[in-house]
Specification:
Elements (H helix, E strand, L loop, with lengths): L2 H14 L12 E6 L4 H4 L9 H7 L3 E3 L2 E2 L5 H10 L3 H4 L6 E2 L7 H7 L3 E7 L15 E5 L4 H13 L7 E7 L30 H6 L7 E2 L3 E2 L3 H31 L3 E6 L4 E2 L5 E2 L6 H4 L3 E4 L7 E3 L3 E2 L3 H8 L12 E7 L2 E8 L2 E6 L5 E5 L15 H11 L8 E2 L4 H9 L5
Helix pairs in contact: 3-9, 7-9
The structure holds zinc ion.
């Protein structure tokens, strides 16, 4: 190098030195929420799981093995997933209510921090303006759309994204929700299903009580009465969903999202007559509250099982922390859930293996030890005192920002009924 070249090079260095290195780019964030997704049916990582692809994903993820939905139906649960508030705190517990716009959603926090924010979801509850769209620059909702078509829509949008900005991408699959019509080749698959043998048989009157969405019939409209058939068809839905998710993970990796933080979560579960009910929304037993919750951190960080009970409303806290907007949420303490159905208010809490359900109108408390009695068959004589206090406090909690009334126009009511709810 000539002396002149050395001087030029030193000059360039001198010019470059004062510039600060750019702050690290916040991670891309992907949330995959799934309708009506029971943890005990998914059996992730267990022999015979109907979901081998999601089990493989879970092996590299933080697995919350005692995750509860904050409410046993879509609307309050999704509002909690998007805000981090419990159902009692946001108050969006009936179909004619919408989130108060003063509540800051996860998408709003991330949008303010420079994220591009996209939501693609299938459920007629998402199509009316209930505040779920707050903070999403792209918000697309369909009353019905199969998972394959949903993924093609997502891929088109991800391909067209602004790559200079981090991304929040949220997908919501409808697949395991009733009607139980699994994608081929799983429909009617004669694969025995876990728990099928122990399931009861309905009588005609019980069948007639089912909403049309839940009824299975054989050719000639012959009612299907063995509950094992319902379990088998639900599990077939999970097998179909598993293929979709496997395809999605490959597709997102190919599109440059291989280092994204990816959350997979159920919005609530489904009853198959374990406690005299079907569907969801009306009870707070484990079949409607216990859902899968997986968080795949970049590089497989923190992969492994977490047995501490958590609410899925912790998800916005995880993602705000991942984006550098907040400290990581602390786990532990009572986990709460609730539902309001036809004038009946039920509240539940879990602390360790202790669980209780409070009927807020009658004051009746039903307590269980989930460690000794996971099927909730043998109520305890005495509920845990600290847990009862927490659940009672929840029953008297009022939202800081009360929900707004959404006119319950006939189409909205018809949509709710089609989903199996009675608005
Ligand atoms: Zn749902």
């Amino acid at each position: 190098m000539t002396p002149a070249a050395v001087i030029t090079a030193l000059g360039l260095l001198a010019c470059a030195a004062p510039e600060r290195p750019a702050p690290p780019r916040p991670p891309d964030l992907v949330v995959v929420s799934v309708e009506t997704f029971r943890a005990d049916r998914a059996r992730l990582g267990q022999p015979g799981s109907p979901m081998p692809k999601l089990s493989a994903f879970a092996a590299n993820a933080q697995r919350f093995e005692a995750a509860w939905s904050p409410a046993p139906w879509t609307l309050p649960s999704m509002v909690s997933l998007m805000t981090g508030l419990s159902a009692a705190e946001h108050g969006v517990t009936r179909g004619e209510l919408s989130l108060n716009p003063k509540v800051e959603t996860l998408a709003e926090s991330l949008q303010s921090a420079g994220y591009e924010t996209m939501f693609f979801g299938v459920n007629s509850l998402f199509t009316a303006s209930r505040g779920l769209d707050q903070g999403f620059s792209t918000y697309r909702a369909w009353p019905s759309l199969n998972g394959n078509d949903l993924q093609r829509e997502v891929e088109r949008a991800v391909d067209a994204r602004d790559r200079t900005r981090p991304l929040l991408l949220w997908l919501h699959y409808f697949e395991p929700h009733c009607p139980y019509e699994a994608a081929q080749p799983f429909r009617g698959l004669e694969t025995p299903t876990w728990g099928e043998d122990a399931a009861p048989t309905l009588d005609q009157a019980q069948f007639d009580q089912l909403g049309r969405c839940f009824q299975l019939t054989d050719p000639g409209d012959v009612p299907v009465l063995p509950v094992g058939r319902y379990l088998r068809e639900y599990d077939a839905e999970l097998r179909g969903l598993d293929l979709l998710l496997g395809d999605l993970f490959v597709s997102l990796d190919r599109r440059g999202l291989q280092d994204a933080v990816v959350v997979v979560v159920g919005d609530h579960g489904e009853s198959f007559w374990e406690h005299g009910d079907f569907g969801h929304g009306r009870t707070l037993f484990e079949e409607v509250l216990h859902v899968p919750l997986l968080v795949r951190w970049p590089g497989g960080r923190d992969a492994g099982a977490v047995t501490t009970p958590v609410s899925t409303s912790v998800v916005p806290g995880f993602l705000r922390a991942a984006a550098g907007l907040a400290d990581a949420p602390t786990l532990g303490g009572p986990v709460l859930a609730g539902t309001d159905d036809e004038g009946r208010a039920l509240r539940a809490g879990r602390l360790g293996d202790q669980k209780l359900i409070l009927d807020a109108q009658t004051g009746v408390v039903t307590a269980f030890d989930l460690g000794a009695d996971p099927a909730e068959r043998a109520p305890l004589a005495t509920p845990d005192a600290a847990l009862l206090q927490a659940v009672r406090a929840q029953a008297t909690t009022s939202p800081t920002h009360p929900p707004l009334a959404l006119p319950l126009a006939p189409p909205v009511e018809a949509q709710l009924r089609a989903l199996g709810y009675k608005p």
